[in-house]
Design goal:
- The protein is an alpha/beta fold.
- The chain has one domain: Rossmann fold.
- The chain has 10 helices and 6 strands.
- A 6-stranded parallel sheet has the order 3-2-1-4-5-6, sandwiched between helices.
- Helix 2 packs across helix 8.
- It starts with 9 loop residues before the first helix and ends with a helix.
- The relative contact order is 0.17.
Length: 224
């Protein structure tokens, strides 16, 4: 479903979104365990010494008022409630999570582009095709659909060392890993993506190994 459009004008889209040479993408539903606050803090540190970087934040926020008539909003309410139950302590309230306010607090508004809305399937490629790396600085990780999409687009990933990320993201091969809640480590991982470019061939090979066909084959081997 999510594949590059060979006719898409990447340069025009980058100009429209006010993006610089190197683009880091946070994509998806904004909820605390996904660590957008860490991504923004790490990017701010990176941007102190570089004028050629942009952070692109795309997706709905958990605090946005849902519209009852829209199916994805009904799913969002259920999804958000379940994630709070699993990943947030009882003392934390998702309604007070406002990572986007950090953009002005850290003085990086000119290097950050925010598309704070639901993205329909047919528009997803527009944001991946203008990006150089996907940022997944999760605090706690379950399976990430965004990571799978990134590999479909042959885009490297910078991620936290949690959940399945150490298996799918190999340092220097398909991306770079950072320590959980360690902004310095995250900044270093983002810098590595720029200074040590990941070969698209590596990501393509990893993407094929993660295909449903190979997954089914592995299940059949176990069943024998």
């Amino acid at each position: 479903m999510y594949t590059p459009d060979p006719y898409f004008d990447v340069a025009a889209q980058k100009r429209q979104l006010n993006l610089r040479q190197y683009v880091f993408l946070f994509f998806g539903f904004i909820i605390k365990y996904k660590g957008l606050h860490n991504a923004i803090a790490a990017f701010a540190d990176l941007a102190k010494n570089r004028e050629d970087v942009s952070l692109l934040i795309v997706g709905e926020s958990s605090w946005q008022t849902p519209k009852k008539e829209r199916m994805y909003d009904r799913f969002k309410r259920i999804f958000s409630r379940e994630l709070r139950a699993q990943f947030l302590s009882r003392q934390e309230d998702e309604q007070h999570y406002r990572p986007l306010e950090m953009i002005d607090q850290l003085g990086i508004r000119d290097k950050v582009t925010v598309v704070n809305e639901f993205i329909p399937n047919e528009d997803v490629h527009k944001y991946f095709q203008v990006s150089d790396a996907i940022v997944l600085f999760y605090e706690t990780a379950i399976v990430s659909g965004v990571g799978s999409i990134a590999f479909n687009f042959k885009i490297p990933i910078v991620a936290s060392r949690v959940g399945h990320f150490p298996e799918s993201v190999k340092d220097g091969t398909t991306g770079f890993l950072a320590n959980v809640d360690d902004v310095y480590s995250m900044t270093e991982a983002m810098l590595n993506i720029i200074e040590q470019p990941i070969l698209s061939e590596n990501i393509e090979k990893k993407s094929k190994s993660m295909s449903w066909e190979n997954y089914a084959k592995s299940i059949l081997k176990i069943a024998k």
